[in-house]
Amino acid sequence: MTKKDKLKAKLQGDISTFVFSDLVTLLSQFGYEMHERAGSRVIFIHVDDDSDRIHLHKPHPENTIKGGALKAVKAYLSEKGYFDEPQTEQSTNQN
Known about the structure:
Layout: H1 3-12, E1 17-19, H2 20-29, E2 32-36, E3 41-46, E4 49-57, E5 64-66, H3 67-79, H4 89-92
Antiparallel strand pairs: 1-5, 2-3, 3-4
GO molecular function: mRNA binding
Protein name: HicA
InterPro entries: HicA_mRNA_interferase
């Protein structure tokens, strides 16, 4: 399992925090580049589509994102198709 796969699986899991530097690594693997803005704001822009953007505040003093920011990132990446659809019991029990 590659580092990308491990980080992706961890982010997809039931977690309450995620290390920001790991998020930067994972998003770069997905084709995003980080650009720093004023203060602690950062924006991740996809290299193939500059309208594909993720806006965040760099966490401080800790290096972990949590709460609403974490949920928003997970939802956005899921919507964009970066996560596999979870297997439901019904889909795994088909004849």
